[in-house]
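Sample A.
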Amino acid sequence: MEQRLQNLKNYFLNYFEYNLISNQMLLRAMDRLPDPKEALELFKELIDSHRQWLRCMKTNGWSKETLKIQGLAALQTQWRGAIDDWCSFISSTELNDLQSPMLVVCLKDGDAKLVTVRDIAFQLNSMSLYVREQIVRIFRVQNCEPPHTDHVFSALRTSAAEVNA
């Protein structure tokens, strides 16, 4: 059981890292968009979600504070900070606490719900993929080639040495 939970922890850390890198690639490419407003708004909401859920996990509190749309450089810094904070939180979470229900009052309606760190980490990583695909669609609608952020491209090995590493 402990090995399975350690594998789960490592999986989430790797998934957060992949999303960090992929979304940074996307952010760097957004300056090519003729109208980046919608893409920036989606990305801002993604960062807000990561911060809100981490606040819930740590303090049981929901905040109405949201990011103001800022320049790409500021969003890149805020994105890196949000992922670094989540990776630190996951790393410091005891293995059994990954799946232990926590009562949090963090939903906008004020209701208390039972959630697990595992559920929230999965939700945020899935949301990151979903938002990234929405932004890729914006690139295509605006006749811009999006960067290749598919996981398979990040996992491809170019040499036998990398495979054996």
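Sample B.
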Amino acid sequence: MKPAFLLMALLALDGCAPAYDDVGDKLQVDTQKQIDAGLDRLSGDRQVTDGAARAKSTPGQIEAATTDASYAANIAFYASSLASLTALKSRMQALGDASSAKEAEAVAQIETNLTQVRDEHAKEGMLGAEYVALMKGTIDQQFIPLNQYELQLKAGKKPG
């Protein structure tokens, strides 16, 4: 009788969605906004210093944008963003269910891509606006399943 009860309890639990985590959801949204803002700033600064926009910019604007787009000026952005991703990944792993484990892997992929951007920036000193826009688009696409996961939890549904 006990094995049958245990089996029924496990089946019932399998149908339950993990609990919605408001703190994790806010951390995820804040992390995406932080990364987007940093990459948008980098892209904007590079547009001022590159190509046709350079011709319309004053020497002071070009100098300020060049300084702001340097790796040295963005070390804190990378450190803070990667720390936020680590916290988000840890929170996902702490939930302990299969769906949040997959989400933790998705966060790890974002972490890998942002680390790639950071490493390229450190190597080159500056990044091209097109590269930054491409990587921002890639990272934003990687956040979509994470947002869908949180929205499903918030609605009380079991993530797929």
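B remarks: The CA atoms of residues 50 and 129 lie 8 Å apart. Residues 4-13 have pLDDT under 50 and may be disordered.
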